[in-house]
TrEMBL record:
InterPro entries: 6-hairpin_glycosidase_sf (IPR008928), 6hp_glycosidase-like_sf (IPR012341), MGH1-like_GH (IPR054491). It holds the Pfam family MGH1-like_GH. Residues 89-392 form the Mannosylglycerate hydrolase MGH1-like glycoside hydrolase domain. It comes from Arsenicicoccus piscis. This is Mannosylglycerate hydrolase MGH1-like glycoside hydrolase domain-containing protein.
Amino acid sequence: MSVTFDVDPVRTRASAFDADPGAHLVDWGAASVVADDTRLTETLSSALADLQHLLMTDPEAPDDVFAGAGTPWYLTLFGRDSLWAARLMLPFSTELAAGTLRTLARRQGVKDDPVTAEAPGKILHEVRRDLFDQSESGLHLPTVYYGTVDATPLWICLLHDSWRSGLSDNEVRDLLPTLQRAVVWMTAAAEDSDDGLLRYVDTSGSGLANQGWKDSGDSMRRIDGEVAPAPIALLEAQAYTVEAARGAAALYREFGLEGAEQLESFADRLTERVRDTYWVDRDGVERLYPAMAVDGEGRLVDGIGSNMGHALGTGVLTADEATRVTAMLTSETMFGRFGISTLARRNPAFNPIGYHSGSVWTHDTAICALGMSREGHTEAAAAVARSLVESAAAFDYRWPELYSGEPVLGRPAPYPASCRPQAWSAASASAIVQAVLGLSVDVPAQVVRVNPVHPTPFGAMQVRGLRYGPTTFTVTVDTAGQVAVDGLPDGVTVEIG
C-alpha cells in the first residue's frame, strides 16, 4: 500500500523578509559531467539539484535569486554563505551571482549600530524572520545582523569574478555605487586599526564572538589548544581583502572610476603586512606555515588550521609560500581520506566531530583544492578533489555541511546537527570540476584558459554547460590530457596548459 500527500504551504505570519522559492529562475539543465569515474558524474548532478532547490528570491525584487545557506536551520540569506555558493558556481551561472550581489546590495549598511554590527558600506551576515535568542550562551542576534568581517571583501570578489565570467557591463555599472561604499568600509576598517589588519570584535556583548567563517566561540586555537582572545585578525580575511582590492582596482579602471592606484597600493601594503606578520617559526624551521590569525594580544594564533588554504590563489602568497601551504594542508596532520580537517590532528583541542576544531567542511576543502589548482599544485589539487568525491559517495551524493573525516566503519561520520543539503557544500561540486580542468574564463579579455590536472584524477571527462557569458560551451579531456573546447563564440582565444 502507498500513500500520497499533497502539501500546500500557507504563511501564517508575515515578516520583512519572506523569500519565496527561486528554483525556476536558474536553469542548470545543460550542465553535466561525464567521466570514467562515474562518482564525479553523480556528484555534480546531485549537487546541482540540491542547490537549485535551495534557491530563493528577494522579496524586494522577485526576479533576483540567491542561495539560502542550508536546510533545515539556515534557509535564508547569509552574506558569506550565499556569496561563496554563487562564486563557486560561476563556471555554470552568472545569474545566481547577479541576484546574490543585488540582494545583498539592497541591504548594505548605512549607519553605525553596535547591536546589529552595522556600519556604512558593510555587507550583512544574515537575515532571519525572528530574533535569534540563545539565552544559555548569551547570544542574541537581531533579525538583520552584520557581524561578519569577510562578507564585504567577498562581495567585491564576487562582483569582479562575475564581470570576468560575463556579467553584463550594465549590470556591473548598476552595482558600482555599492562597490565604492564597500571599498571605503573595507580599506578604512583595515588601515584604521593599530596594525593595519582587518579585525573583528563583538562590542555588543550579545553577538558572535568570532566573525569569520569559523564563527564558533572556540574556533581560534593556539598550538597549545588555548582559545585566542579578540579582537581577531584572520589570515583569510586579509587574503580576501587583498584579492578584493585588486579586483576593485580592475573594475575602477574598466568603468572610469578614480582610485585604482590607491587600491593597488593598499593591496601591496596589506600583502607585506601578512608576509611579515603571520608566518610561524617552529622546530628550527623558519616560515613553516601561516598562523590562522593574530589575536587581541598581538600573538599569533599558531594552531595549524585550514584557514591558510583560503589564501591560495588570492595573490597574497609568493610561489614558495603557496608551496609551503599546500604541503602543510596535504600533510598527515591535516589531510585524510575524506578531506582537509579544520584543525590539525596534533593540536590538543582536536576533535574530529568538533564544529571548527577538527571536522571536515565540504566547502573549506573545496576552496583549498581550487586554490592549489590556481597556484599550479595540480597533483595536490587532484588528491583533495578525489577525497571530496569519495566523501560525496559515502553520503549518497548529498554532502552535509560538515562531517568527521576520521573513518567509522570505513565511512565519514556525519555531524549530528549539520545542514543537509547546504548551499556552499553543494556548490563545491562545481569547484571540483573547475580545479580539475584548471578552468579560467575571462570574457572582457576574450580568453578561456584550460590547464587540466594530469594524470586526470577521474579518467577521461567531458564537461557540458560551462558558461562564457550567455554562451554555453564544452570541455573534453582524454586520459592522455589532450583537451578539446567546443561551442565558444568566434574571436575567443583558448589557451591550453
